[in-house]
Amino acid sequence: MDGYVGDLSAKKEKTQKDPWVPSAPPKRIWPGGGPKQTSEGEKNTDGVAVAIMALPKSERLRKKRDIENVFRRSLRYESALFSARVHKKETLPGRALVSVPKRVSKRTVDRNQLRRLVVERLRQGLDIGAYPADFVIIMKPEALKSAKPALLAEISKFQKTLFP
Length: 164
Known about the structure:
Oligomer: single chain
Helix content: 25-40%
Largest sheet: 4 strands, mixed
CATH architecture of the largest domain: 2-Layer Sandwich
Number of strands: 6
Radius of gyration: 26 Å
């Protein structure tokens, strides 16, 4: 009989590992092992550094109605690198939205990098939730062409203008 494999009903020993059952993936840790300190000072027990890149959910402007409200009733701030709308309100927390349109760059990687840079600067330099205002920041194509220090300086200037 050609192609005969053998008796498939034979029992395997319990010590043999079944090749068809996947094993658990290895736990990934930083070289050097051990827990690392994160930038926020919290101890990370699994050895993987955690970077907070986004705004907390409570500080994000998400609903269409709220975004339209900002555009209808807002103060406008113009810069060579971005345009901002600020709607001052009575209640906390303040929220923010950073928009990088496709006209800035067709490459998603470039748009995401620019957005993350601006969000991180807002998160570190300005406690958005502490101010009773909603922000919409729309980046211009010149922002991608400019140097990072120039962009960060413009954002700092914007923050100081609104909240001295």
